[in-house]
Design brief:
It contains eight helices and seven strands, in the order H-H-E-H-E-H-E-H-E-H-H-E-H-E-E. By secondary structure, the protein is of the alpha/beta class. The chain has one domain: Vaccinia Virus protein VP39 (Rossmann fold). The structure holds S-adenosylmethionine. Belongs to the eukaryotic/archaeal PrmC-related family.
Length: 210
């Protein structure tokens, strides 16, 4: 899975957008590791939540050009960046400005084959969560889980029967608790890839019906 070109992000217009970083590349590498599995799905609908610059969903769209790729973000400049990323890399992605998947959920129920989320996961004070600025990219509040925990109950509703959900988590997020919650929702977990990035220990978890 090639990393899309993203030089255009240097433009000041995009200064509130999360620049592709080690976590973004870890997610792309995890998808690459699982490419055979994902290919077997022959995904029709791919959705990225919190697409930021759009680097991940554009990489996905490049490999699966016939899939319908959507990307949501709470930051409207991120949606513009995602659009520009897709155009620059000659792929098609529909950007949507919304909280998590609020604006698209009803039309995607049980239809998403590939769902990806590199969420704000850093442990911060709760007040820093959910702003419209760059802070929204990393501020995860209590346990770094305030944004992702709101999303987890929607995952089983969105996934198709064969669908796969990939999420980036930090050790501080307590992945065991997440796995236990998702197990209660009927989803089993596999740890696809872990990497130490500076002081952070990041993993990409895959969930699927099981
Ligand atoms: C860690 S960044 C990841 C960006 C990109 N996916 C990547 O991997 O480079 C998290 C992204 O989630 C977005 N975000 C934060 N809270 C959100 C919410 N409630 N709904 C949708 N997007 C959100 C942020 O604006 C940011 O673009």
């Amino acid at each position: 899975m090639n990393t899309p070109v993203f030089d255009f992000l240097k433009d000041d217009v995009y200064k509130s957008v999360y620049e592709p970083s080690e976590d973004s590349f870890l997610l792309i590498d995890a998808l690459e590791n699982d490419l055979e599995l994902i290919r077997k799905l022959n995904p029709s609908i791919c959705l990225e939540v919190g697409s930021g610059s759009g680097v991940v969903i554009s990489a996905v769209s490049k490999v699966f050009p016939s899939a319908y790729c959507l990307a949501t973000d709470i930051n409207h400049v991120a949606a513009l960046a995602t659009k520009k990323m897709a155009e620059t890399n000659k792929v098609t992605v529909e950007p949507v400005v919304t909280d998590l998947t609020s604006a698209v959920r009803s039309r995607l129920l049980s239809q998403v084959d590939l769902l990806v989320f590199n969420p704000p996961y850093v442990v911060t004070p709760s007040e820093e969560v959910g702003t419209q600025s760059l802070q929204a990219a990393w501020a995860g509040g209590i346990k770094g889980r305030q944004v992702m925990d709101r999303f987890f109950p929607f995952v089983p509703q969105l996934l198709s029967t064969k669908g796969l959900f990939y999420i980036v988590v930090l050790k501080d997020n307590n992945p065991d608790e997440i796995t236990e919650f998702m197990f209660g929702q009927g989803l089993k977990m596999n740890n696809v890839l872990s990497r130490r990035c500076g002081i952070e220990h990041l993993s990409v978890l895959r969930f699927e019906n099981g």
